[in-house]
Amino acid sequence: MKNVSVGHQKNLQLYMQRWRTALDGVNLRTLDLGAHVYPHLGTTARAHKIIALKSFFAYLRDGAGLLSKSEDKTQDLKVPQGKPEQQKRVKAIPHGDFLKVRKLLDGESRDALDVLARTGWHVTELVRFTNGGEVLPVRDGRAKGATLRLPRTKPGNPLLVEVPPDAARAAKRLLGKDGHFRVRSRSRAC
């Protein structure tokens, strides 16, 4: 199999062994999804089971030429959409845990954490800021704090982010630093 990881190959082999047992004696040209396939899908690993079966039928149809398109009943079988990672687990750090970790940090590490928390930037963006960013007054002068200018984002355009005074002071202290912030693991804090 081309362009398929070893793990995916093992998954396909496992589910194909199960399909071999489930479909033993069934004429694949006259396969009935309702009678032969759906009863064996269950609720767990449903997508993997469908992908394995569809891959096998695609091979029979396109690779070996043993089935015609009209004989491939799995074309009507839909692979369920996976849930995005954001829906599987919460990535937000509880505020109390954030404060505990912040209390353990000092200097550049604390400043870096403060700027990241107020801007929503990734560490790579903070490093780009420290190497060529600017701390500017708020554009219309209506608020306290400052505007941080990230010289370029991934697409290459600059980015302006307004921050409160504490984050502005932290950002000023970080300008010109090497951008290698030492945030050691502090698992006991949480």
The number of distinct structural domains comes to: 2
Low-confidence stretches: 184-188
> What is the β-strand count?
3
Average of pLDDT: 85
Q: Which structural class do the helices and strands define?
A: mainly alpha
* Largest sheet: spatial strand order: 1-2-3
Kindly describe this structure.
It is a single chain. The chain is built from eight helices and three strands. The protein is mainly alpha-helical and 190 residues long. It has a three-stranded antiparallel beta sheet with strand order 1-2-3. The model is unreliable at 184-188 (pLDDT under 50).
Question: What secondary-structure arrangement, pairings included, does this model have?
Answer:
Layout: H1 6-22, H2 33-37, H3 46-63, H4 85-88, H5 95-104, H6 107-119, H7 123-132, E1 134-136, E2 146-150, E3 159-163, H8 165-174
Antiparallel strand pairs: 1-2, 2-3
Helix pairs in contact: 1-3, 6-8
Short description:
This protein folds into two domains: 6-86, no CATH class; 95-181, no CATH class. It is built from eight helices and three strands. The protein has helices at 6-22, 33-37, 46-63, 85-88, 95-104, 107-119, 123-132, 165-174, and strands at residues 134-136, 146-150, 159-163.
